[in-house]
C-alpha cells in the first residue's frame, strides 16, 4: 500500500526510496479524539482519510472531500 497523487492504492515494491516513503505511515493519536490516525511519513500534517469508497492522503481538518495533493 502506498500513496501517489493523494490516493492510496496497492502497488508492488519497485525498490525506490520514494516507494519506501510513500508506503510508510506512522500511527498517531486519532484526529477525532479517539482511536488512531495514520500519517504518511513524507506528507506531515496529512492523514489517511476515507471518502466516496476510496482512501486518500488528506488534511486532518474538516469533513467531506478535503483532499490535498501529496508533495514529491
TrEMBL record:
Gene3D superfamilies: 2.80.10.50. It holds the Pfam family AbfB. This is AbfB domain-containing protein. It comes from the Bacteria. Residues 1-62 form the Alpha-L-arabinofuranosidase B arabinose-binding domain. SUPFAM superfamilies: AbfB domain. InterPro entries: AbfB_ABD, AbfB_ABD_sf.
